[in-house]
Amino acid sequence: MTSLKIIGSPLPNLPWQDRPATETGVIWRHDANPIIGWNPTPKTARVFNSAVIPYQGGFAGVFRADHKHGKALLHVGFSADGLHWEITDEEIHWVDEQGRPYPPNYAYDPRLVKLDDTYYIVWCTDFGGAALGLGMTKDFREFVRLENPFVPFNRNGVLFPRKVNGNYLLLSRPSDSGHTPFGDIFLSESPDLTYWGKHKRVMTRGGSGWWQGTKIGGGPIPIETTEGWLLFYHGVSGTANGFVYSMGAALLDLESPSQVLYRTRDYLLTPEKPYETTGFVPNVVFPCATLHDAATGRIAIYYGAADTYVAVAYTQVALLIEYMKNNSELNPGDGELVR
Ligand code: BMA
Fold first, then answer.
1. The pLDDT of residue 81 is above 80
2. Closest CA to 310 of 94, 138, 71, 75
């Protein structure tokens, strides 16, 4: 094993299972997947594509829940072990910065990050079209919505866990109004989480990998390592029966994160298990969060499966990045400065 390490705090109580002896891949699934199934609360039909974070010795999460009326909203949940979750039946009641109710028309695919003493949530919201919503909480009880960072259309907003070169960083995937048949990952900077600029194109769809030929989108909050920012992302391929969502990973330069150092040529995880291939939307593996332990390099990846379930997979940082170095392919346009 190399000296490659996660930069961050120890998290000895994260969910973990050792790699099974029969496993040939560098990512392996939790053996009791899915961890959240159909109808998890009275009002909700499906919880998936959700975000978790260490909180008060256990874990808190912001969950995408499709209600029985069909629309997606965000809900809070808590867990002692990261695997068994108590999810509130009532959705988050957002207020604006003056304390007035500010409910999103819909809300899905949250990402959750702690910056200083505040937890920030970025999700896909209705802003006359799909756009990024931004909000914060300090205690997972009161949730304040801030200004939407960008105009429509945009999805897959992913904040970095610290400022880089003095600015906050946000990955996103600009698009059109539909179930976008295209899309690349961009990076934007802000001194204050309000004004965004210095946009760069980080990663393009396509290359020789058909699994990511249609569109790509950032996944969990990037993990800082001694060799770069580790970004899990989803890649989509179009088939005769609709889209297939798989997971890959990229390593971005620590000081200039729009530069892609390595990027998986093949997918790391693709729908294979019944809970990934069958559900409300078949063939979806959609990572939105990780828990990671800097002491051991262990990473637990939380992903939505088939727009129906929450599932967990594991990897070890040195094992994964070693694999990425040996199985990397950058695309034309990766790291391109867009002027
Ligand atoms: C995307 C988003 C995700 C969803 C995926 C597959 O556009 O809506 O929430 O998991 O489609 O349906």
1. yes
2. 75
